[in-house]
Amino acid sequence: MSADDDKYPGESGRRRFVKGVVGGAALAGVGATGSAAVNSLTTSPGSGGGATEAMAIENTAGPAPRGMPQVPVEIRSDGTIAGVWPEVSTEEVQGRTVDVAETEMGGLTYSSEWYQYCGVETYEGIQPSYESDNVFRVGSSPGFEWQSDLEEGAALTVDMFDDYETWGNGVGVDGMGKPGTASWRSQDTENTIPVNVLRSPVIEELAADGEASAPDQSEPYTVTDDVQQWLQASTSQGVMAWLNKCTHFCCVPGFKAEGGTKFNAANEVYCPCHQSVYEPFSVVPTLFTARPRPEG
Predict the structure, then answer these.
(1) β-bridge pairing 73-75 and 81-83
(2) DSSP β-bridge partners for residue 184
(3) Nearest-angstrom CA–CA distance, 219 and 197
(4) What is the Cα–Cα distance from 130 to 58, expressed in whole angstroms?
(5) Distance between CA atoms of 189 and 271, rounded to whole angstroms?
(6) Burial class for 149, CB neighbours closer than 10 Å (0-12, 13-18, 19+)
């Protein structure tokens, strides 16, 4: 059995993988010269790209090569939930003047390059200088029944998730958190950047204490000090978000999706296309080669 075969979840349970930097096998052993070559190849004729480390919800089963990148969130004074966009500056890169979206957050470098895969790098909203209020808004096809009464384009607010400690949809166990789907930086554009928002007591406790009990398992979830620092900076009131594009073939996974029950993923994020599974309560650094953005 090959390593890739082993990553497909079996019907009677899936295998767990060592947590840490994943998706970087192709870059392993690349020295300074090789790394420069990688960046050179991926920055021309576009902007940005190259070897990139992002914080992501961990891929634990299925063919996906790595986790899906987190979108840091902020809750504004009126309760509106928004994604944090990195600070934009202008830099000279390989003799060209380009806009760069990058900022320090939670002890890490947060960059727009985290989202440059699956064609998202071509979206207008991923351009550093695209003007947006960065609010998460209800899309045309919400992923959860509770959102069906919300008007398309309505802003997500934290009070919509007030029952996050008890919410359930008949899949897995209740009390893991309340999810919602949204679009981000997509107003007046041809393409939609899809995100999944989750407010969870598990995330709230991990950010506060580095450890959290949960009704789906007997042992608590734990994170390292570095990850706790990141969660404190990138989440708020138990609210987290991620770019909802499976890193395998760019399908749209779902938290507590019905199909996940068959693959021991009832309380996790499950992609129905090829059974990839992601653990939203395991946030890990993920190494991959970001694609360059087209010339702006």
Answers:
(1) antiparallel
(2) 193
(3) 25
(4) 29
(5) 26
(6) exposed
pLDDT digits (tens, 9 = 90+) for 167-204: 999 999 999 999 999 999 999 999 999 999 999 999 99
Tell me what percent of the residues of the chain surpass a pLDDT of 90: 76
CA distances (Å), 131 to each of 103, 190, 270, 278, in order? 17, 15, 32, 31
Name the pairing type of β-strands 239-243 and 221-222: unpaired
Model confidence at 255, in pLDDT bands (50, 70, 90)?
very high
Q: Which two tokens stand for residue 42?
A: 């991926």
Q: Please, how many CA atoms are within 13 Å of residue 202, restricted to the half-sphere of its CB?
A: 26
Q: Of 71, 54, 296, which Cα lies nearest the Cα of 185?
A: 71
Amino acid at 264: N
What letter does residue 113 receive in the DSSP assignment?
A: G
Distance between CA atoms of residues 275 and 199, nearest Å: 24
> Could you tell me which residues come within 8 angstroms of residue 129 by beta carbon, excluding any fewer than 6 positions away?
88, 99, 296
Instruction: Write down the residue that tokens 């949960």 correspond to.
Output: 214
| Alpha-carbon span 236 to 290, nearest angstrom | 27
| Of 75 and 295, the one with more pLDDT | 75
Strands 108-111 and 96-105: antiparallel
Distance CA 294, CA 43 (A): 10
**Rounded to two decimals, what is the model's pTM?**
0.84
